[in-house]
Structure formats: C-alpha cells, structure tokens
Amino acid sequence: MISRGLLCLALAVCAGSVLAQDLSVPSTWREPQNKLNIAERVIVSQTALNSLLPELNKTAAQFNVLGYWQGGNVFSAMANEDHVTRLRLNQGVVTTNLNKAFALYADYDQQMYDDDALWWATAAYYAYRAYGDKNLLSHAIKTWEHVKTFQLSPQDAASGSIATKSFPIMGSCEGKTMAGGVFWRPVANDTGVNSVTTGLFLTLSAYLAEATHNSTYQDSAIAAATWMKTLNMNSDGLALDTINANDCSRSPPTWLFTYNSGKLIEGLSVLADITGDQSWRDFLTNTVAAVTHTTAWQGANGVITEGADTDSDNDGAGFKTILIRAVHEAWARGSKDPQMRDLLRSYINVQYNALLELASTENKGVRWYSAAWAGPQPTNYTAWGQLAALDVLVSAVDINPLV
Ligand SMILES: *[C@@H]1O[C@H](CO)[C@@H](O)[C@H](O)[C@H]1NC(C)=O
Ligand SMILES: *[C@@H]1O[C@H](CO)[C@@H](O)[C@H](O)[C@H]1NC(C)=O
Ligand SMILES: *[C@@H]1O[C@H](CO)[C@@H](O)[C@H](O)[C@H]1NC(C)=O
Ligand SMILES: *[C@@H]1O[C@H](CO)[C@@H](O)[C@H](O)[C@H]1NC(C)=O
C-alpha cells in the first residue's frame, strides 16, 4: 500500500483540500455533552446579553471598554439569540443601535477599517434575518457596496492597480492571482489584504446572495473564497492572516487566529448552500476538521485558550466568539452531514461547559465570565469576558435538544 504522502508527491495534486478529513470527536475533550434544559439555556444566554446593557453608551452606540468592532458583535449575538429563540427580546436595542451607528459612522466605518464596517454590516444582516427589517438589510447592502471597491477584481490584478489605492499592486503572488482578496483598510496607502476582511466579505456576500438572489453577491463571494483557498491557507488547513498587495510579503505563519478560520467557515457554509457546489462543501469540511482538531489555540481538552486576558480588553479577547458563531452556522446548515454536526455540537458544548464550570462565577443574579475559558473563575466583571462568552451561550441554546 502506497502512503498518502507518497501518493500526493507522485501526483502533485494533494494541495490541502483533499487531505485529512478527521471528523471524529477526540476522546480527550472535556465534557462534550450538554447538561442544561432549553429554558435554562435561554436564561443563561439572555442574562449574559443583558449584562452588557449597563455598559452601552446610547449616544455613541458603543459599549464602554469594548472596541468598536466588538460592540457590533454584541448586537450580532443579540440578533442571533432572537433568531434562535424567536422571542425578539433584543429587537428594540439591536434595531435602535444599528440605525444609530449607521447614521453616526458612514458605511458603519468609524475609524477607517473595512473589517469594522463589515462586522457591523453583518450584524445588520443578522438583525434583518431575525426581524425581517428591510431598512437594516439596506444598511448591510450600502456597506457592502462601499467595501466592494476594496476587493481586487481580475481587471485590477491584470492592470496592477486598483482605483482605491495609491500604489502599484502585485496582480499575483506565488503564481496565484490576487483577485478576490479584500483590503483591510480603506486608507489609500495601506497595503494589507487579510483573511478576516476577505472572510467577512465572503460571508456577507453569501448571505446577501441568499437573501436577494442577486448574482453580483454570489460572484463576489466566490472570488473571496477562491482567494482564501488558493493563497491564504496553511498546510494544516487553517487560515493565515495577511498578504501585502504591494510586494506579496506575508504575516508570520504563527499568526493563526480563530476568527480568520471562523469567518471562512461561516462564509463557506452559506456559499456551499447557495451554489450547491461540492468543492465549497469539501473546503468547508476540511476547514472544520482542521479548526476543531488543531493545537494552535486549544489543549487536548478542546477548550479554547486564545485571547485569555483577564486584565484588560484587547482584540484577541473577541476572536474566539466569532469562531463559535461560525461553527454554529455550519451546524445549522449541516443536516446532510451528521458526523460533522456531531463534532460541531460537541465542540461548542466543550466551550459551554468550560465557561459554566471553569470560567464563571455567579454574583447577585449575574454570571461573570472570564475571557480565560480554561479558568480560573473570575473575581470581577469584565465587559470583554462577557462579550467572548456570548456566541457560545447563544449557540448552545440552538444545538442541543429542545427539552
Ligand atoms: C458616550 O460617548 C460619547 C461619544 O464618544 C462621549 O462623548 C460620552 O462621554 C460618552 N458617555 C459616557 C457616559 O461615557
Ligand atoms: C498614509 O497616508 C496617511 C494619510 O491618509 C498618512 O498620514 C501616512 O503618513 C501615510 N503613510 C505612509 C507610509 O506614507
Ligand atoms: C445587485 O446588487 C448590486 C450591488 O448591490 C446592485 O448594484 C444591483 O443593482 C443589484 N441588482 C438588482 C437587479 O437588484
Ligand atoms: C479582575 O479579575 C482578574 C482575574 O479574573 C484579575 O486578573 C484582575 O486583576 C481583576 N481586576 C480587578 C480590577 O480587580
């Protein structure tokens, strides 16, 4: 029997996607089974969402302590809670603040970051999905049209320039076209094209295509997914971070963040549905297998340890909740793949049980969550610890039986 590695060498075709699809639940994972009933899970999640409201600055549509992009993700979790429970307990605060931010910050961009704009536009899409509010859908579309001017087209790649940037661009890197990649910042001289912005754009484009049946969005989603697949994955099947479009230089290979692979998973799960294209489903399955089994951000017990800062907020504290939201979406759309679904439910439940048993403490009816999911239990309230827990708590409502 010829080994897989030798076969790949001989045929030179095993570039990532056809390799390793381990969808097993590791026996070393800590508590992959849920213990709470549906009513308890809804209370846990809604209480955590409410716990951030005292931090909301209503004038600015932002939360004290949290970064602007993180605040957008609080509203995403609130809208997704309502999507899952259909209770609409958060509709007022979500709608008011998504409208407020859109009025205050042009195209949802507060500080010249395309990913910021997309976090908020995605929140507006989730709110549209939960409430059917067309006005919020129009905010998402308007923001999409703005960020679209920062996605490299095949023509940009051929000409070596893009209208929104002041420097000559490399049309291809390592022999592969840069078309489909999305710039991180709308600043004319900023060169970074990265996974989070491209993955967010993939995801929003795929959702808009699904909602509107407008092929413009599907084409943009395919271009973004193609850029990820051909240029920005490592050999373990995880998303890398940045490529600079002026010289093809890359971020360090050690920059492996949950949210980069997370946005890819969420986008691919929608793209696979709207296109029915098996190649996107295969890419999704491979990325799910890689993400859930990696040692890049979790121990053998499966508990994510990335962004475990208990002293102060930082961007990294907000990453892992994005991955859990993404694998929840893949779970929700994964009815044709029970093995993958079981793996994803187990993965989310591992985080859920860790949060409840290792990383939280009850104080006067409010549970404080630590950003350090493997523990120890927190001794105080931190807004970023609450934020990091949200998508786990919301997802756990949905993935476990309705009893
Ligand atoms: C709310 O945000 C605005 C705008 O950034 C700021 O001027 C104001 O001081 C904030 N209010 C509170 C109570 O922090
Ligand atoms: C990039 O442009 C900004 C203005 O948009 C300017 O402040 C900055 O100095 C420029 N950076 C470089 C490296 O040229
Ligand atoms: C499809 O979406 C694009 C981008 O938002 C828009 O310019 C175009 O008018 C839409 N087409 C239709 C038929 O609505
Ligand atoms: C809050 O608790 C964490 C441990 O969970 C600790 O590291 C931090 O210093 C505490 N901060 C304050 C202000 O007490």
Automatic annotation (TrEMBL):
One example of a Gene Ontology biological process annotation: carbohydrate metabolic process
Keyword Glycoprotein: no
Gene3D superfamilies assigned: 1.50.10.20
Protein keywords: Signal
Signal peptide region: 1-20
InterPro entries the record matches: 6-hairpin_glycosidase_sf (IPR008928), Glyco_hydro_76 (IPR005198), MUG_Protein (IPR053169)
Protein name per UniProt: Glycoside hydrolase family 76 protein
Source organism of the structure: Hydnomerulius pinastri MD-312
